[in-house]
Amino acid sequence: MEERARSCLLRSRTVLEQDIKASYLMDHMVSDTVLTTDEENSVSSRATRREQAAALVDLVLQKDNRAYVSLYNALIREGYGDLACLLQQDLPLISPEVQKSYSDGGTPYVKMVLIEGGVPQRPVVFVSRTVLINKVRQKLYKLKDNPGWVTVFGMAGSGKSVLAAEAVRDEALIKECFPGGVHWLSVGQVDMPGLLGKMQSLCFRLEQKNNSSARRPRSIEEAKEQLRFLMLNKYPRTLLILDDIWDGAMLKMFDVQCRVLLTTRNRSLVDSVSGHREEVEVESSLDQNKALEVLSLYVNKTVRELPEQAGSIVKECKCSPLVVSLIGALLRDFPDRWDYYLRQLRQKQFRRIRKSTSYDYDALDEAMDASITVLQNDSQTLYKDLTVLKKDVKVPPKVLSILWDLEPEEVEDMLQEFVNKSLLFRDCSQKPYLYYLHDLQLDFLVEQNRDRFRELHSKVVRQYNQFYKMGPPLSGNEESLYWFRYLTYHMAQAELSKELCELMFSLNWVSTKAQIMGPAPLINDYLEYSAILDKENSTVREQFQEFLSVNGYHLEQKPFPDVVQLGLAQPNSSEVYRQAHLRAQERASGGGVFYLDWVNKSSLESLSHLVVKPLQGSILYACFSRNGQKIASCGSGSILNVFKTTTGEKLLDIQAHEDEVLCCAFSPDDRLIATCSSDKKVRLWNAESGMLNRTFDEEHEEQVNHCQFTNARRRILLATCSNDGMFNTKLWNPNRQSSQNTMFGHMGPVNHCCFSPDDKFLATSSNDGTLKLWDVFSANEWKSIDIKEFLGDQDEELETIVKCSSWSADSKHLLCAAKNAVFMFSVETGELLSEIRTSRLSTVQFCDYCPSSKLVAVALSHYAVELWDMETKKKITDFRGHLSWVHCVRFSPDGALLLSCSSDETVRLWETCQVHISSAVSLKRDSEVLFDGAAVTILAADNMNRLQVRGGTTGDMVLQSEAQESRIRCVALCPAPLAVALGREDGVLQTGRIPAARQVLRSFSFRTLQLLALGVRNMLVALGLDTGSVKVLAVPSGDVLCTLTGHLRMVLHCQFNADGQLLISSSEDATIRVWKWRTGECRVLQGHTEQVRRFLFLTSSPSSPGLLSWSYDGTVKVWDMATGDRVQDISCHQASILSCDASANGRVFATASTDKTAKVWSLQSWSCLHRLTGHQGCIRSCCFSRDSALLATGDDNGEVRLWCVPDGSLLRICSSGSKDSMDSLHGGWVTDLHFSPDDRVLVSTGGYVKWWDVEKGEALQTFYTKGANLKRIHVSPDFRTFITIDNLGILYILRRVE
């Protein structure tokens, strides 16, 4: 034992004998093999504890350095930290041979655990830094029972990674604290897409170890949740080592309640995460003795045998572990060059690298230069090629084989030489091995080869193009991932602007990279290289970036969508569309590939600026930061998310509360974010680090609905409002734990509060129907406005809930929202100045006043966002795109952007300066279409209660009626061009003559329409209205030919017979009426007990035309239209019938019901032939094939099934295999089905449109509409044109690409 260690033990002997329990310590020392069993028994035989302690100390004094170190480790493990500190300063060095036998990876168990976890192997030359290693282990033992963080921090080259790896080479530590294993992940300076790749690799490794298989996470959030699941459920006591962490946002991605050891240069990074934290500082350099020991081990000599130059070399290297190792590796190969290397270090001048003030690069420059010059000339050239690598990027040998144009075996030999000389590092955690440079080595190479930088990167691009002449790699292995991640980087660094543009303006590249890596890296590329791309063509760059920003979330779906089909939905002027159309034509010409061109999309203006999906679940609130650079969002997932306004890049992801987060707000200086929740708590967060600053959890007794900061920085206050009884509004000083003031006066829950821009008043909106203004200084009520007075007699039986309020920029006017109205009041007088009334079928969820204009944004319950001008009280536009309730709208501080958030899990940004009046008009989903060759005629009602007739090849507007006060529910066209029938709400039926073309129709409105035939210039239309009346009128003149009354409730469906002499209508009053519309005669078909939504004609007996009707009463009835007699009355289902179809051969018909079954019935015997079971949801649609041999059914879970009609057997299930974000295989209910003429293709509608291969049951193509909830699709006879309308009122004319 070294003398200083012995002396320390003797000095500490008395204290040790008083405190230690020898039996506890000896267990560890026997495991370390420094004590024998006999020696343990000898010590244990002593009578008292103190005598045992004394005997143990005597025994250790008789042994070597290993016994001293073993005693020190045992003290740490048994909780004698204070006693271990007495021994720490004099810990002895252990000889390399003894150290290797003592702890060279420990037992086979330890080696197995570390190899499986990817922990780097010990360096060839290793000097134990026992004090630091034991410090780290001591901290790791504190993670035994609970998750937490141990941070090892210090400057680059200080040996943090080696220290972290060495700390876990301990069997006792692993078994006691981390029995689930140890897993190593090198992070480095990566962007979010790069981090996603690393997290994907980690999750894959964990899944492989667990013998399970999961879908590869496509986003950072999904990877984090998968890692959280694995750590909590599969590896609850596992240590995750994160090597070289640079960014707090990156670190937060691993905040998943697990045990983490991390190495970093920035000790403050852990401030961004939650949980128990410990830290160990690593000195920036070795002490001189340790540095000399490193050199001695390289040259295989003792320290005393080293030449005198050794001390000078260590001094010139500044004792950096990395630099000393580099020089030592050189001296191992050339042991007689001590003077030479010392001279090189002293004389050669290198320009100082100034990356950071936290470390000095001088010694590294000198050592690196000396290291490289000893290589052969060819090897030096190859090594300098590594200048092109990005920091912390590990490269597979195959990439270097392409770069160097060498055989793989030659590359492996060369890499081995670099590794042996400490010029390169190897990651052996996976095969093939990956190679990387330390960042200091890379900085040195970049500085030394700065004049050849472009040339070296050009070589990379040139070699890639030569090797991959036939197209990029598609395997998804490490090699292909490298090229997809960094090819654009190499092009940019080489200043190959033309080549970069050709690559990034290629839809093939977009499709391939998105399929392998997801959309995030693509979006990042267009942002990162925008300056270069814009010099070539800024318009094209914007088109590709917009394509990905708005539609990129489709690329995260499984199965991966067809990017060419997505591109076909872009504007015709877009380069994305041009390439997509060209690819579609090429692939369609080969046969078997199905593409649809949206031919009328030019009429649709795309207003959406960015679509972000930050959270899982409904997003209840979102707001801009005060500088407009960030957006915070919160919702049902109890998460607070902060992302960049420009790119959607996530900055913070905080588990903010125990329940849904209802509101969030930035402080005036953007340093704090306040959140409030259903858990009755209000919390303040650091907006940069995400650390919790304060929790207010004692005063509110019910959920806190809203929170808002004052606007000025001089005196910051926070207002909160809740569902509490009387004391439901409070003011808080963020620096104090208790509220500053409580405002009482509302008699119901307070939904919203906001300060006036000058901070003089606070406005509150309540369920008690009032809007109140409070003096902020005194907290007294200043004014109260009863909103009920301004709503009139509207829904008096319902309570008036004031949703929210918003101030004008000058603090003179105040908006508030209640029911379907927005009111503007004078703050001074309380007088109503203006009001907006929206659709009576929707309620206003939120409103916001633009800070730079008179515009007001309104969020509505029917998925819409509307923009109004308060001066003119006119709606400027509808912002369309959300697929569920919109909960909040907020303008940016400059008013240029508007955000909206919704239950569809998205936040959308809109540019307010690019609004279009035309976008305010939308169509109703019920429509009818006539196909005439390539031309189509489309009839549908719009949201302004007008009839629109569109025609031509692209659906151009032909006719548009004036608005009608009576809502039209259905429309039918007469096959003979004589007259039009209109059904109205008032029960009146009108008829008129048909003049000539293109006149504006007189006012009417409708819900559904059926078009049977169209004359060359004229046609008849029958309209059924809410009140039960039916109108027949001429189109395009609009002359009323007759008005038919009789139905007691709204008309749901109407249709002319083949010769146009009869008009049949069905109603909510459970009756069907057969009209001789020219004379007004009517025959009533009664028998159904519930509403009759539709009917169809039976053509089996032309002489006696039949009518088949179905109803919510579960019955099907067959009528003789000539006599009005009921021919058959069949009780088909115990639940409602939703759909019915008759076969083309006239032999059978099918019914589909809410009881989740479908049935096939004989049209001759009227008996049930087959009962079809298996659907797990209501069957909403059914359709026979053209040859009557197949029946297709679709249910509310998005599933489509194909059945054999003759025997009723299930042939196949058409399924995409995985559910989408709307929790359905089809994005919603399957509402309509159609077979192609040859019965080889089936088209279905749901949340979007899908085409299926009938033989295989596989999807041929998917067209994603802007909205969802499609009701019908109209198919041309040649199966080449498809027309539908989504819930946003957007018309789609889809034509097959040929």
UniProtKB/TrEMBL annotation:
GO molecular function terms noted in the UniProt entry: ADP binding; ATP binding
Keywords: Apoptosis, ATP-binding, Cytoplasm, Nucleotide-binding, Repeat, WD repeat
Residues in coiled coil: none
Keyword ATP-binding: yes
GO CC aspect terms: apoptosome
Domain CARD span(s) in chain numbering: 1-90
Biological processes, Gene Ontology terms: apoptotic signaling pathway; regulation of apoptotic process
Gene3D superfamilies: 1.25.40.370, Death Domain, Fas, Helical domain of apoptotic protease-activating factors, P-loop containing nucleotide triphosphate hydrolases, Winged helix-like DNA-binding domain superfamily/Winged helix DNA-binding domain, YVTN repeat-like/Quinoprotein amine dehydrogenase
Primary localization class, coarse: cytoplasm
WD repeats (start-end): 654-695, 743-784, 879-911, 1044-1085, 1085-1129, 1130-1171, 1172-1213
Superkingdom per UniProt: Eukaryota
Cytoplasm found in the keyword field: yes
InterPro entries named in the record: Apaf-1 (IPR017251), APAF1_C (IPR041452), Apaf_helical (IPR042197), CARD (IPR001315), DEATH-like_dom_sf (IPR011029), NB-ARC (IPR002182), P-loop_NTPase (IPR027417), Quinoprotein_ADH-like_sf (IPR011047)
Protein name: Apoptotic protease-activating factor 1
Source organism (scientific name): Paramormyrops kingsleyae
